[in-house]
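This part of the workshop introduces the protein records we will be handling. Getting from the letters to the tokens is the skill we practise here. The record below serves as our worked example for the rest of this section.

…
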Amino acid sequence: MKKTGFKTIFFDNDGVLVDTEKCYFEANQLALKDYGITMSLEDFQKYFLRSSKGIYAILGDVSQAAFEVFRKKRKQYHMELLAEKPIAIPGVDRILPLLAEHFRIGVVTSSEKEPFERIHRRTGFAPYFDFVICREDVEFSKPHPEPYLKALTFADCKPEYCLVIEDAERGLRAALAAGLCCWVIPGPMACGGSFTGAERVLGSLEEAAFLLL
């Protein structure tokens, strides 16, 4: 029996369902090293987790051709790391199926489809997702509200019946801008973020499930 009026849960992916933000961080570091550039965790948090400036803020004013070369290298590193590194978050494999019995489950991620699919070939979580919105599916990424506004159309559900579960400030801002309730489960990569506006800040998905079921 559900304890809340929510009917649909929109999950962020990286940092909430899987511990993969560290892979993207490392892929950026490796690709930047080829250019003699060092990126700190603080840089990653500032430009990737709290805003959408991303790698443009690190690389600076480079040509589109040079940027595409960088992206190709980063993607290669990223895909290799996703195949090799441990990515499980303890308890998610047990909690997600329970939530899927009671709620529609959508995933709203800034990841591209290819790495997303590689991740969930490993996890086996895909059957629990009613729909997925990846970076290619929207014009603007988080913290813009477009990804969550699009999720609302996919869910065919009123905003007051939808819950967002995020791990970082950027996603929280996107959810709030879309008029949605958001619970935050900060991951290790998102430490030090400001979660003002979140209805709850929790320690794990297990805590969220206890409040929901």
